[in-house]
Amino acid sequence: MGRDYVTIRGEKVGDEILYKETSVSRMNVKSMVGRVERLDNGAIRVNGAAWSDGAEITKVEVKIDDGPWRPASIERTKHKYSWNFWNFDWTDASPGRHTIVSRATDANGRVQPAKDAPEIDLKETYWEANQQKPRVVEI
Q1: How far is CA 23 from the centre of its chain?
Q2: To bridge 49 with a disulfide, which of 14, 83, 103, 136 should be the other Cys (CB 3.0-4.6 Å)?
């Protein structure tokens, strides 16, 4: 780190995995589920944050279990590099264990990749491995 801020990442070359230093530069688009709470009306509110390299976060979506992606509401920030807080009201929640995941999209069209997306395979740090992070909750 004395000469450059770097991270290590692996790349498949044929049957081998080669690890190399990569300079850290632009931040990837990211989002994460932060809090899940029951509202007075019985709905479950899923709260989280999304951020990027300064490009506007244009969309955050939430997926519950193997269901479709559904839009979340974003609280717009005035500051380019601030977190964008978001929430999603889950009105059709059933009792039991559920997996919730979010994904963000920025103004440049970059979409936060899925956990198994090839472009983040073998990434060793959260800086590069900005994949969707599932959260398991019990209702």
Answers
A1: 22
A2: 83
